[in-house]
Peptidase
Amino acid sequence: EVRQRRGDLPVALQRGQTGNWPVSRESVKSVVAAMNILFAISEEPKLVFDSAVAAKCAGVRATPPVSFCPATNTLAVDLAGLKKLGAASAGPAGLTGDNTAYSVLISRQMLSLQNARGLALDGATAGLRTACLTGVATRKLAREVRTPDGNTVALTAGDLDEAVAGLLTNGLAASDVNGKAAPAGFARIDAFRTGVLGDEDSCSDMLA
């Protein structure tokens, strides 16, 4: 089903070295740092490994295993939950793995980016825009990014399918700040595909 849904997503993103990068504090910090670099984020979100922070955020619901709090520009990570989400497995929607988790992490950081630009973070449009921007981030990671902590972040074989599998199974990477995602898997994949094949402007044009 993943291959069918993936459609014309570029297969070039699946070439290269294979293997997963297990979810850890270090990997989460590096992925967030890579996004700050790739999107030239000036108002970098604060990263905390405390799910209780998300529960205390005013005006929004927590979206474990990663939540974004607009009031404090904070990414709250439940590391155990994110590790579970990133565990390699095979299911009806296809293979899941590390990038199933990282795509969710990236999607919450894309909410921070939208918040800094004064965009609405709740509702169906926000969820699809988030999926689109997560696709843009995926495309940007086709090239290696060196982070300040000395790690190199880049896509490896299968990462694209892992992201698509996550969009089909839990939809978190295509959800708004409250975790509400478009019910149709096709809509989630279409928004993600628009980002992978385009750029940030493509996301704005699609959802204008």
Observations:
- Residues 10-18 have pLDDT under 50 and may be disordered.
- The first strand starts at residue 46 and ends at 48.
